[in-house]
Amino acid sequence: GENVEQHPSTLSVQEGDSAVIKCTYSDSASNYFPWYKQELGKRPQLIIDIRSNVGEKKDQRIAVTLNKTAKHFSLHITETQPEDSAVYFCAASRRGSARQLTFGSGTQLTVLP
Amino acid sequence: EAGVAQSPRYKIIEKRQSVAFWCNPISGHATLYWYQQILGQGPKLLIQFQNNGVVDDSQLPKDRFSAERLKGVDSTLKIQPAKLEDSAVYLCASSLAHGGDLTGELFFGEGSRLTVL
Questions:
Q1: H or E stretch at A107
Q2: Is A43–B42 a contact, with Cβ atoms under 8 angstroms apart?
Q3: Averaged over B51-71, what is the pLDDT?
Q4: Is A68 exposed, middle or buried (0-12, 13-18, 19+ CB in 10 A)?
Q5: What is the SS3 assignment for B7?
Q6: Residue A106 in contact with partner chain B when CB distance is under 8 A
Q7: Which residue does chain B place closest to A51, by CA atoms?
């Protein structure tokens, strides 16, 4: 089955700096890669996703890049703000799996004012 | 649009007792998932339903866990008997996805936090 590894497990940045979180996946058939943000005690919420036919996707301060050859994808947050502090999870799913996601272990991002 | 509803939000039980969690997905969502999230880890899929049929339950510990989705809408997840290691947040999610290469986003409920003493 799919295995998703996520690094780092914790990340602290100064407000205004950029944050990068990296994930690798094992199943070359995976074709959908979402990122979820989970605030303490809250539900995970989708912030951005990318499909395997695209190398990069951007939404305001958030971007995701995908390298299919190396089987890794990354989340980039620019101009970080205190409200970006949360746990971020990457995930992967394969074609035909009815959006059956395998999640990474999470990154606790802390944005210091 | 109403979100995914789950209850109870919190439950504390003794080991070997039983517990049941309920989920009401977003209206019209064909696919429903139960995930287990242990503290400090990512969610792990337990079972996936499409309408009222099971798509995948390969990671469900069937000796103690059971789930059903009668009439293809609400779902219940039951644990009997509970073990200490079952302490976790049980997340229900739903999506419009109904097979193939899908575009439906996964929407999560707030979760049911189980503590087994």
A1: strand A107-112
A2: no
A3: 91
A4: middle
A5: strand
A6: yes
A7: B103
Residue B11 in tokens: 């439950």
Interface test with A, best of B26, B35, B101 (most A CBs within 10 A): B101
Percent above pLDDT 70 for chain B: 92
Type of residue numbered A109 = L
CA distance linking residue A53 with residue A61, whole number of Å = 22
CA angle A39, A44, A47 (to 5 degrees): 95
Q: Which residue of B31, B101, B108 is in closest CB contact with A44?
A: B108
Contact A44 B91 (CB under 8 A): yes
For A35-92, what is each residue's pLDDT tens digit? 999 998 899 999 999 988 888 999 999 999 999 999 999 999 999 999 999 999 999 9
Mean pLDDT of B40-66: 92
